[in-house]
Amino acid sequence: MPKKSSAAQYGNQSISSLKGADRVRKRPAVIFGSDGLEGCEHSVFEILSNSVDEAREGYGQVIILTAFADHTFEVEDFGRGVPLDYNEAEGRYNWELVYCELYAGGKYDNNSDGAAYEYSLGLNGLGACATQYSSEFMHVTSYNNGRVYHIEFAKGEAATELSVREPSKKENGRTGTITRWKPDLDVFTDIAVPREHLENVLKKQSIVNPGTKFIFRWETEDGSFEESEYLYERGIIQYVSELSGDGALTPPVLWNLETMGRDRADKPDYKLKAEVSFCFTNTANGLEYYHNGSFLEHGGSPDKAVRSAFTFAIDKYLKTTGKYNKNEAKITFTDVEDSLLCVINSVSTQTSYANQTKKAINNTFIAEALTDFLRQQLEIYFTENPIDADKIAGQVLVNKRSRESAESTRLNLKKKLGGTMDMTNRIEKFVGCRSKDPEKRELYIVEGDSALTSTKLGRTAEY
């Protein structure tokens, strides 16, 4: 391969570092998982999740998301209000730390007594800053400590000074944060976030944050707003009941776990709380996992626990009750999953997310704790509810045997179609001769199995 010209050589001056907003604007996928629409969608969730964290701590039970026709977004909450004033410990203003400094935030010590947050979706101090960096503009208004703070940004830089004023009579006693921004098309290839996506996000958040009302406002072409509300007072069991309807094999149940543990012997203990709701149904099977409010699209620790515990417990029940046929293979999770509707909503003071998009968690303690908890609870459930246990066992066996039958049919068909298609395997009871020479081969047509046997015995198999 010919060498490039000396102007394109790789040397000491070839190394550079991204600074300021360019750390996100030039590589948004590192933070948001994509520089396309999916990344833009995640940037909206980053701001929304800060409001959700406030509500989960008990500050403000209403969150308003507005989507404007020009693809500007606004999130309004009634929490404590993001601190924007001077930070003596850091020697800088908090508006600069929160919105202009990656890895700066108030959620690093969630596992400590007296922390500002105990169970937060925010974790790394990246979301607000990265979203500001990737915006065409961002305006932040904070009602905090009896004052109203306001600052504006453009293209990742502060566009105004921090303003501070006394609240008006209408604002008196008001707390919370209003963030309005527009994702930048110079950063994302697409910023037209679909209405259905935003509605789905708010619905999911209302499910795992029971009692918190989410209001969605969508601006139409004529400038008016269509408004919808999402509120699940009873959380995930209400959601499971809604999905399963009246035709479920077993009624939805809700189990709660609260424990402490560590991921490794030399690591500190942390708190874990989890809600598990499930039922068995043939109409709406599915698995959904949430941790600290984040929808775990790729599962991780909770998924490992569900797969292990349900398979183990149901297999044990089938063996104990003698429902397996003699020499029958044991069930797999596929057989369970076909009829299982299960939702887990967990929170912890320490979380190991797979990455910034937070679609999976890897905590070993969470996987082990949930596995043990589910095994124990399922064993108790099967003992206390023998009728439902038999329904579950019977349905899982039906799923297993149907799967095996379908697989057997598939393999036989594959074998048949994969072989050489000639007279021998196209016609039932056709008996071919040994010779491949068409000059020697003869065709005899007989009637009945007895005539076929006599012909086979009375002729040379060669032809």
Summarize the structure.
The chain has 463 residues and is α+β, with helices and mostly antiparallel strands. Helix content is 34%, strand content 21%.
Structure in words:
This protein is an alpha+beta fold and 463 residues long. The chain has three domains: 22-230, 2-Layer Sandwich (Heat Shock Protein 90), CATH 3.30.565; 236-410, Ribosomal Protein S5, domain 2; 423-458, no CATH class. The chain is 34% helix and 21% strand. It is built from 13 helices and 16 strands. Strands 1, 2, 5, 6, 7, 8, 9, 10 and 11 form a nine-stranded mixed β-sheet that branches. The protein has a five-stranded mixed β-sheet with strand order 12-13-16-14-15, sandwiched between helices. Strand 12 (253-261) and strand 13 (270-280) form a beta hairpin. The longest helix is centred in the last third of the chain and has 33 residues, at 386-418.
